[in-house]
Amino acid sequence: MFYAIPMLSPIGKLNKTTSNNEKGHLLSNVSDSDSINPDVESDDLLTVGKLFFTSSGRDRSCSASVIDTSDGNTGITAAHCLYKGGVYSEKVIFCPGYDNGNPSALGKIPVIGLSVPKSYIESKDDDYAAIKFDYPSKLQLQTGSFGWGLTPPSPVSIAIFGYPYKGSITNCTNDAKHFCTWRGYATLESPFRNKPAWKVPLHIGSGASGGPWVMKNNLPNYLGYLIGVTDYHLGKTGQANEYAHALNFTLLRELINWP
């Protein structure tokens, strides 16, 4: 059985409920021929943004993105950005399209709901979590969204987006202020506690945690399909491999079942 712990932050109250009948687009597999071409130049995306929050009294930041849901106001990030040491993060703000130290025209979007897996809280498994945006309409209509629910073969061609700090992505300032993209191939492994995770051969860097790992698909209306978010690295800095826990879509539907 899967567990999630949706939580309302003190910023406000939720006033919408997501339909259980529209929790994603579940397909069994996708051909790698439809994947993102690793030679394509980086995109400018409003779908990805910088996540600001306070954790244990300190101001911090991660990366996050908007995912396709029926309510149109749901995103995803790393669980460790929202929950640490038994305490939820506070004053969470999402800035879609943030770049060069500045938010986009969409500004700063308050986050009024956090949903962290119980499996992460108890054992640090499933390091991804859902966030609920306080936006007057559907934010995903303004930003676009990443689809989810596809299980690709391994290896798969992907793009990784985020705001890394002191990482090893080339053609990236790695200063946590600029939007950066890495393109290449991810392989599915089980390097830690036998938990399936996607691996890429680089150290992305702090600040990129929660950034989406996306494969392309030719179905309409999506910018790509999410397979995970930046979670953890193993190895020495500069020689590390980066991992994203493989998404469990049953658990993800549970996470976005907002009260």
TrEMBL record:
It comes from Gigaspora margarita. It holds the Pfam family Trypsin. It comes from the Eukaryota. PROSITE patterns: TRYPSIN_HIS. This is 8465_t:CDS:1. Gene3D superfamilies: Trypsin-like serine proteases. The lineage of its organism: Eukaryota, Fungi, Fungi incertae sedis, Mucoromycota, Glomeromycotina. InterPro entries: Peptidase_S1_PA, Peptidase_S1_PA_chymotrypsin, Trypsin_dom, TRYPSIN_HIS. Residues 56-252 form the Peptidase S1 domain.
